[in-house]
Amino acid sequence: MQGNTASAEGAIAAGCRFFGGYPITPSTEVAEAMARRMPKIGGVFVQMEDEIASIAAVIGASWTGKKAMTSTSGPGFSLMLENIGFALMTETPLVIVNVQRGGPSTGQPTMSAQGDMLQCRFGSHGDMAVIALAPDSVQEMYDLTVKAFNLAERFRCPAFLMADEIIGHMRERIELPDHVDVVDRRPLESGHLPYEAGEDGVPGFPVFGTGHRVHVTGLTHDERGYPVTTDPVLHEALVRRLVGKVENARREIADYRVTNPDAEVVFVCYGSPARAVQQVVADHPDLGLGILRLRLVWPFPEHALAEFPNARVFLVPEQNLGQVAREVERHVLVPVVSVPKLGGELHTPAELLRAIEEARSR
């Protein structure tokens, strides 16, 4: 199966019944698969006029109680940012699949990149916490799409699947399980206000049409949902709760794989570059290399770096100029070497071996 198709199948398995999107290379196959499948399972597929309308439609569908998703790539992702901020502020669960391509601007529509990682984390204005997963195989396009829905529903927020063109267009063998674990959003209990949060900081969800009185606004609001924009105490409490409900669970939701924790030279990788790293490590066991492979990039699991107590250097190969490498640098005292690759092609074993040699010579 192709990676993009696998993502669509994962969404359906997780309970997605609304897709609103606009075709854009290299994510279009996600929309095509959903257009074929949604009518057959009682769902709704809508091709909107652009990406701004797409994310707005998905937000609206989510408030009717349906699990909803859209897919896009860099230029479309940029157009969605304002409404992504709206979804964060209104605590709207939804999934956005971003199959990244070379940028800036329209860049390289058919070539791979990972240049949207910091845009995903910081693109919307204001303080925020986001959940973003990064698959490195067709199987993970399926599995992590399911997980993205479960996290979005649990924390009542947008969740991102930050894929790349190589993984989106790759075809591999995939195992489709008969059953996946599905998490549904917590309903709003009788007598509770629409934004009245429990100990975990996550309010129950008041589905439109089920008798709840709820006002949905991107403005600073009280627990009823009514705008209160000039109260500094209320605003700080709201934003701290929105950030805290994700950040306080970072260890619990962290998803990573550790290889050779005793290594002195350690790769930190995610997405398609992880495949090249794994090949190099497998082919050169004598080098004693370690791998920290991130399946969930945001919130960044900085505690995972401590899994390598003997690390003398971390190498971070990315299809960008070092976006996640900056995050690694914040949390370690040893050198961090960015191994960038632009242009759409994967790192070669020779390039990675050269980076290892240069890192060891420091």
Q: Percent of residues in beta strands?
A: 15-25%
Order of H and E elements: HEHEHEHEEHEHEHHHEEHEEEHEH
- Main sheet characteristics: 8 strands, mixed
The total count of strands amounts to 13
Which topology of the largest domain does CATH recognise?
A: Rossmann fold
List the total number of helices. 12
Helix content: 25-40%
Radius of gyration over alpha carbons? 21 Å
- Output the CATH homologous superfamily of the largest domain: Thiamin diphosphate (ThDP)-binding fold, Pyr/PP domains
Report the structural category.
alpha/beta
State the domain count: 2
Q: What CATH architecture of the largest domain would you give?
A: 3-Layer(aba) Sandwich
Low-confidence stretches: none
The CATH class of the largest domain, by name, is: Alpha Beta
What gap, in angstroms, lies between the N and C termini?
Answer: 43 Å
Overall, the morphology is globular
Mean pLDDT: 97
List keywords for this structure.
362 residues; Rossmann fold; alpha/beta; 2 domains; five-stranded mixed β-sheet; single chain
Question: What would you note in describing this structure?
Answer:
The structure is a single chain. With 362 residues, this protein is an alpha/beta fold. The chain has 2 domains: 1-253, 3-Layer(aba) Sandwich (Rossmann fold); 256-360, 3-Layer(aba) Sandwich (Rossmann fold), CATH 3.40.50. Helices cover 36% and strands 19% of the residues. The chain has 12 helices and 13 strands. Strands 1, 2, 3, 4, 5, 6, 7 and 11 form an 8-stranded mixed β-sheet that branches. A 5-stranded mixed β-sheet has the order 8-10-9-12-13, with helices on both faces. It is globular. The termini are far apart. 48% of the residues are buried.
